[in-house]
């Protein structure tokens, strides 16, 4: 490897260790989370619609059960598409990370271990989200297309399990930024002896 080229690249990186001001991966993560949570939430509302129908009638909201399932479907598709970009941005940013070796997270992991688990977990979650999208598509267009309830109870249960995995996985990501200061602009400025309040305005 050409060490001069690597050093030249490093000299062009900002205080956050990236060639751009704001890390892309965390923003895409929150978009993926929001879309997936909305998908499962709207499908739950669709499943519970017969019990909520009097409430919608009282509020004078003209909604049908299929509307909720439509929103659930489009959100899970969007979550699957965005997740590819989320994982790609995560791997790009993790390659530029300088992990401190003298810090241990609240879970007792070093920075490199945390990055490894977070990277592997990201690919695993991508596979789960794509799998859920395929499962949802089969329910919508084949298995349950003639029924009023478009999703199975097992699908909703699997969605809750994936949300729990996302919580664990997201905590690892939070450790990378918060405890290890990876791609954290303010943290890097403090380590360099600079005042973030003066430089980040």
Outline type: elongated
Beta-strand segment tally: 0
Main sheet makeup: none
Tally of helical segments: 8
Please, what is the average pLDDT?
A: 82
Structural class: mainly alpha
CA-based gyration radius: 21 Å
Q: How many angstroms separate the termini?
A: 38 Å
Question: What letter string, H or E per element, gives the SSE order?
Answer: HHHHHHHH
Beta-strand share of residues: under 5%
Helix share bin: over 70%
Poorly predicted segments: none
Topology:
Blueprint: H1 3-11, H2 24-47, H3 49-58, H4 65-95, H5 111-143, H6 153-178, H7 185-191, H8 196-199
Helix pairs in contact: 2-4, 2-6, 4-5, 5-6
Structure description:
This protein has 201 residues and is mainly α. The chain has eight helices and no strands. The model has no long low-confidence stretch (mean pLDDT 82). It is elongated, with a radius of gyration of 21 Å. The chain has helices at residues 3-11, 24-47, 49-58, 65-95, 111-143, 153-178, 185-191, 196-199.
Brief account:
The protein has 201 residues and is an all-alpha fold. It has helices at 3-11, 24-47, 49-58, 65-95, 111-143, 153-178, 185-191, 196-199.
List the defining traits of the structure above.
8 helices, mainly alpha, 201 residues, single chain
């Amino acid at each position: 490897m050409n060490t001069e080229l690597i050093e030249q690249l490093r000299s062009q990186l900002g205080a956050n260790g990236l060639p751009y001001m704001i890390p892309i991966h965390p923003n895409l993560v929150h978009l993926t989370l929001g879309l997936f949570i909305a998908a499962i939430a709207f499908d739950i509302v669709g499943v519970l619609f017969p019990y909520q129908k009097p409430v919608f009638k009282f509020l004078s909201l003209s909604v049908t059960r299929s509307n909720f399932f439509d929103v659930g479907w489009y959100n899970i598709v969007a979550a699957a598409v965005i997740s590819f970009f989320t994982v790609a941005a995560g791997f790009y940013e993790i390659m530029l990370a300088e992990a401190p070796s003298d810090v241990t997270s609240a879970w007792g992991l070093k920075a490199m271990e945390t990055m490894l688990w977070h990277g592997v977990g990201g690919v695993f979650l991508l596979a789960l989200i794509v799998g859920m999208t395929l499962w949802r598509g089969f329910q919508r267009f084949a298995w349950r297309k003639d029924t009023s309830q478009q999703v199975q109870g097992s699908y909703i249960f699997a969605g809750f399990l994936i949300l729990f995995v996302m919580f664990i996985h997201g905590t690892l990501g939070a450790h990378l930024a918060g405890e290890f200061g990876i791609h954290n602009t303010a943290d890097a400025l403090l380590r360099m002896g600079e005042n973030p309040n003066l430089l980040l305005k």
